[in-house]
Fold this protein.
Amino acid sequence: MEYRLLGKTALRVSVLGFGASPLGDEFGKTTAEERQRAVDTAIDRGINYFDTSPFYGRTLSEERLGQALAGKRQRVFLATKCGRYDLDRFDFSAQRVFTSIDESLRRLRTDHVDVLQAHDIEFGDQRQIIEETVPALLNVKESGKARFIGVTGYPPRRLAEVAAARPLDLVLSYCHYNLLVTDMDELLTPLVREKGIGLVNASPLHMRILTETGAPAWHPAPESVKQAGAAVVRLCREHGRDPAAVALRFCIEHPYVATTLVGMASPAEVEANVRGIEQPVDAGLLEEIARLVEPVKNTTWESGHE
Ligand code: NAD
């Protein structure tokens, strides 16, 4: 496993990060045994960055990750979030940030997290995020309950605005840098790079579009993108490559992203993904994928109050 520094934080994070939303059954039912083995396998294979949120499984992901990490907390960096609690339940007030971190620490069975992030900020009022939420996060950082702070969300422009206005340690962007979309690099990457803010890239499989299983029912992408993803999957197979591995390797090669978060719910997925990032993708296959994806490249959907 390769490790990279996350911006100016002292965290040397594994290039492959463990996305824990599937532990909250966001992509289908999981068993306790499978979850435990997924987490154990990830640690054994050198993954040291775990990302969760009170939102995933409506606290289930945090609860289960805390349980699975019992006795191993010191071996990993733990990142969680605040502000989003259900599909349509958001609260980015300072007061809620303070109660939220205490609730998360209880569920995660720890006295501090390494990272606390405001979750899906595009659903909040941008002024409140800048003037109230981030200052509250900084307050939590001073208290020692979180070592570093950041924001997460879908529209890169919203993330960039906050990063320009406040001293963040990291930003988490999702579904804006993978085989189907690369527009994270238009505005967000140059800005955070210049400021030395850490960059975390999530959903390298475009929330399962780039896998054999395909998109879950709730996936917000238009049908044309799902079709293009399915075509990429077929093409990778024709070339004898695992599509998820190709998609992950593409993301890992980003020159500034410190860790790429992939959602994992079983030891088999962990093994496949750790192996998958080791194998380079030949330029010919990448060119064919680019041609296939071209008609839908950088297609996005609406999220929050953009
Ligand atoms: P993803 O693109 O990582 O896809 C995850 C899905 O792919 C899951 O169903 C998983 O079981 C499956 N999968 C993983 N490896 C596979 C393999 N080798 N073969 C076939 N299927 C495989 O999407 P994601 O889970 O949404 O994103 C990753 C993580 O990033 C999340 O778990 C979360 O921690 C984080 N994230 C954060 C935000 C936010 O803060 N706003 C948004 C999206 C994601």
Remarks:
- The longest helix spans residues 126-143.
- The mean pLDDT is 96.
- The domain at 3-296 is CATH 3.20.20.100 (TIM Barrel).
